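#onboarding

Welcome to the new folks! Below is a worked example of what a typical request in this channel looks like: someone posts a single protein sequence, and someone else replies with the predicted structure as tokens. Don't worry about understanding the tokens yet, we'll cover that in week two.

Example request:
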Amino acid sequence: MNTDVEQIERKTDGYYIGSAGPFDKVVYTGDLRRLKKILSSNEVSHQLSDHLATLTSNGTSNIFCETDPGDISWLYLPDGTTRAHRIIYTGTFAPSNNRGSQRHTCVVEFSGDYSYDFMCEEIKKLPGNLNPLGWNQEPNSYILHSPETKALVDEARLKLKGDNIYLLGRFAEWEYYNMDKAIEAAMQLNKELA
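Example response:
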């Protein structure tokens, strides 16, 4: 946990991830685009398509704000009056999400790369009397599909499964999972591996 995986190496007694191992099975939850390189010392990496590295994703810019209390958890903004596409009312989920603020908190999400100053101007157009507290940019938030994506990922999944490497999660399976679908996929894989 909290360790970048640079290499998964297969030896005669199993898989090694860094100095940890041996493992008879690997559940890979990282970015599928990096897996061929991570497995570069394994014969299975030669079976994977170079096209996996060309899969595309979209990033987000997010601004964490205080907001007036409310009773909704999400607000989608499809009307074009702002570049923001949704507000996630994190403070509605649990009081502990409010970081000691007297107000609720929320995250305003923008699809793409936007500056803090731009987002501060945009949140003035939104409901809730928003006050910025922090921000971040995530280069990979949403997977994008092309007509070839499903076949490419299915082929990789089949080859990897034959070598006891299993894909799990949004960027590993290249599926647009929300949390409930991610948990369901993990539970199904757990049953399969049990």
